[in-house]
């Protein structure tokens, strides 16, 4: 197994662990706003040119486009969110699993690339006793960084140390 394949396997396992840990006790409009604002504050402090969305499926609850973000980021958010809605897992995990198979598109599975993106940055919002109810997504940075911003916000919301839920920490 190559070093690249080992890295992919480690990231897949780490994302699985993140999804197991990052479960909210509840989700509503106020929590959506807090999650989005948390990421927006980081983006403002670091001058990240990103777009952020938090939503129930088919109901946007938070959206923000930061300075120097691209109008195309909104389309990336939509496509990443569609991947979460279809697979009930993070867009990063879907992309990693494809990469492990030597693939980079969902078209082989009947899904059009104009509607789905397998780049990191969208993560399912899972609620205790309710399951997956929506998503949080970021677009504008490297896909791993987009993913990590989302994870950091969810960890902070439920009182976990964001550092100890990061890919970097979990893949050591």
TrEMBL record:
It comes from the Bacteria. SUPFAM superfamilies: GlcG-like (SSF143744). It holds the Pfam family HbpS-like. Belongs to the UPF0303 family. NCBIfam families: PRK02487.1-5. Gene3D superfamilies: Haem-degrading domain. This is UPF0303 protein FBY58_1294. It comes from Zymomonas mobilis. InterPro entries: PduO/GlcC-like, PduO/GlcC-like_sf, YBR137W-like.
